[in-house]
Amino acid sequence: MFTDLEFVRQYEKYSIVIKGFHQEGEQKLEIFLDFPVVLQDISGAGKKLRYDSYEKKENGYEALASAEDLYGNKYEITDVWSQEENGYKLSRQVACKEIKEKTGIRLTSEFRCRDLEAADFSDYQFIIPGALYNQNDTDGDGMDDYLGTFNQDYKDDRNPSLSVTAYGKKSRWFVSLIRGDLPKTDETITREQIRARHFIHHTDIGSLGISPSEYRTQEFILRCDYPFYERNSFCLNVDGSEWSAYKEVVENQVFCMEYLLYAREAGSLTEASWNTTRLQMQRIMDPDVELSFTLEEAKHYRREMIHNSYREFPDKKGKPAGYFVHFSPRSRYGEQNLLEYGFCGAQTLLSLDMMEAAKENGSEEYRERAVKTVDYFVENCIEESGLPNGIYNVDKEEYVYWWTGILFPFQYSDDRDELEAYLGNQVVSSLMEIAGELRKVKGNYCRSMVDSIHYLLRCYLFERESGIEHPKWLEAVVKFCDKLLEMQNGNGSWNRGYTMDGKPITNPPQWFGASEKEQGSGAIFPAQVLTELYRFTKEEKYLRAAERAAYFVYDNYAGNVEYIGGLNDTTHRKSVKIDAVGVMFAMRTMLVVYEQTRDVKLLAGARDAARILASWTYLWDIPFDKDTLLGKHGFKTTGWAVCDVIPAGSYVDCEFVEFIPELLRIAEYCKDEDLAVLAKIVTRGMQHGLSMPQNMYGYAMPGVQCEGYMTSLWLADTEYKGFSGAAAKNKGDDNDTCNGLVNGQALLNLDYLSREYRTMDFDTIIRQIMAG
After folding, report:
1. Is the domain of 376 the same as that of 228?
2. d(CA 146, CA 131)
3. 25 and 118: one domain?
4. Residue 376, domain member (yes or no)
5. Cα separation of 521 and 556, whole Å?
6. Do 239 and 385 lie in a common domain?
7. Cβ(38)–Cβ(49) under 8 Å?
8. What is the pLDDT of residues 572-598, one digit of tens each?
């Protein structure tokens, strides 16, 4: 696609029209900037500005607009439009020429975009990285499932690649609006500013957004604001209140920002997203990701922390044993009374990590503890049906159901006041009814069960390679997988949750799915264990079941970029949602089946998932206030993926690193160096936040890393007492929670690199991949 920019005279001033043409010369795209700038005063008065004049320059145009606000303050805005490959760069300078009264201002530009073949808003698809995928409408009611509106804006620090992308399905083109310069500074937002909603703030953080057009049903709007303006947002409360920052103005002050409009032809929304991601990888990403320690040192301290968390209870029923890793990083392991399997604790994953460690460092104690942990799980935590339990409370000597992640405090209490002390009033209000329904059923998530048994099989195979047989471990795996085959739906999927005898759970629907697509999102998990068991037993039934699931995933999630169901629990209006972890497991499912069947359709699907996963990943280091925890300790966001349990980029968490082995294999099969570089920034970047002797983050011991970190705000005006978690915290905080999954996933990846490539140096690894 090539574009043409024109100035259009209106009422003695000038607007801009950009036209996009396919290679054969037919116009397909029109972008109309009616008012190039809207200057908004904090008092509420806005000035819609067209250019007073423009002048042709060597590589574009310089356009000028002047404005005077209600107080008589005068401003001059200079926009330089320069031609870029496949689009234009807008370099904007705002000069405060005369200031008579103190105020604050915000600048907005709205780009009215239209596919000339589109009939209405449904003919468009969107990517706002970490937030909006396609139209976020997996229940098919025509509205975004989470915010309830398509009028959406996201602060720059919530946007992993500083871009928003729209795709015209009819004419097959995309346009991306990109923040061209990197925000450099930010300050902590105060409680007073949160209450005010609109406030003067010293920040370089702007926002990008979209909305349906109020002018034509066939068009939509891409927009940028500086500083930020979120017209609908969960940053403050579950009601989605708007809020905005304003730039304080002083005489002779000048401030600048840049934007890119990037337009190309594309065969799909995935291709459109990947083109924008690659552009930003080249423009803004530092692929080296500096660390103050080596990956070898990180591996050592992560192992030590897990090893020392081990406890046995010889006086308790069944003699529980395992790794008790769920505590505040500021304490040494905490009360240690919950053995978590699957999603949060991953005892079998930690056992596998410790077996790898024992083989490497020769410690028999490492191996003995791992074996005891797995033995206890196999002998005590699996039901007669073959399905494993999720959490065991050692103090109460009973299993706990459902209470992972954000629901964790509900396993201790149903007293509202007590719960609000942990979660804040807004989260309790949104989850109290759900918790009440879940209390009625003994069951487990499909993900949690598969995770536990998958790594149980890996432990069995690891020991077997050393000549040690554990027949009961294998029996448990086979019994579970046979039950999976019995539970598989006719369309190839599995449900999100089951009772402990294997009956699918569908109530409440906002938690377990309101449609076939949502209820069947358990499809993204079982292939990992089924293909592994197939390779060992050569029994075709396991491969056939995995294959059916992979095609369900390909047809329902990959094609429309509607990857759902990776997270067990969220605080959105519904739990079954589009999320990054859904992309990760879908990618793994299609890949592992491809590796057995060699169906290139599935490899293409896995590659597409990997490319969408890149859009969830921070390609830049957001600025933190130097007085915050993350600011003080030099935390960097490059390589961290958005965790959408908290809506849209307010929070990053630990999951992506577990899937680096799959990402590297896809990169090798497809000879895609960009995906290999993505694996590098994730592996290295996600070591930030790890307490090390060089930089302890104020944590109790080396080797501790929190589950997640606040990159913006979430439910910031909730009423709370002494919360330990993420709600009501500020940008630059951690979530004050360390759990077993964090180090378990990180070590899985580091051990894979050492074993597969004989090195953790990514330059060497990438050379091996591209030469292989």
Report:
1. no
2. 10
3. yes
4. yes
5. 9
6. no
7. yes
8. 667 888 999 999 999 999 999 999 999
Please count the structural domains in the chain.
2
**The two three-digit tokens of residue 589, written as one number:** 């499912």
pLDDT in tens, 301-360: 999 999 999 999 999 999 999 999 989 999 998 777 889 998 777 899 999 999 999 999
Q: Both 116 and 212 in a single domain?
A: yes
Q: Are residues 370 and 223 in the same domain?
A: no
Contacts of 608 (CB under 8 A, 6+ apart): 268, 270, 558
Question: What's the domain range around 375?
Answer: 316-401+441-487
Q: Which pair of structure tokens corresponds to residue 111? A: 């780009």
pLDDT band at 105 (very low <50, low <70, confident <90, very high): very high
Indicate which CATH number applies to the domain containing 24: 2.70.98
Element (H, E) at 115: strand 104-115
Compute the distance between CA of residue 720 and CA of residue 727 in angstroms, rounded to an integer: 9
Q: Within this chain, do residues 67 and 147 fall inside the same structural domain, yes or no?
A: yes
Residue 336 lies in a domain: yes
- Decide if 300 is inside a domain: no
Preceding omega of 504 cis (within 30 degrees of 0): no
Q: How many CA atoms lie within 13 A of 397 on its CB side?
A: 7
Tell me, letter by letter, the H, E, C secondary structure of 380-437: HCECCCCCECCEEECCCCEEECCCCHHHHHHHCCCCHHHHHHHHHHHHHHHHHHHHHH
What b-and-e string marks burial along 257-289, b requiring 16 or more CB atoms within 10 Å of the CB?
bebbbbbbbbebbbbbbbbbbebbbeebbebeb
The Cα–Cα gap between 593 and 218 comes to: 41
pLDDT for residue 720: 61
Give the separation between CA 310 and CA 324, rounded to whole angstroms: 6
Q: Give the largest CA-CA distance in the chain.
A: 88
Q: What pTM does this model have?
A: 0.96
Residues 347 and 740: beta-carbon distance below 8 Å: yes
Positive or negative: CA dihedral 588, 589, 593, 598: negative
Q: Which two tokens stand for residue 342?
A: 């699957």
CA-wise closest residue to 689 among 740, 735, 725: 735
Residue 587 lies in a domain: no
3-state secondary structure 292-304: CCCHHHHHHHHHH
CA distance linking residue 24 with residue 409, whole number of Å: 61
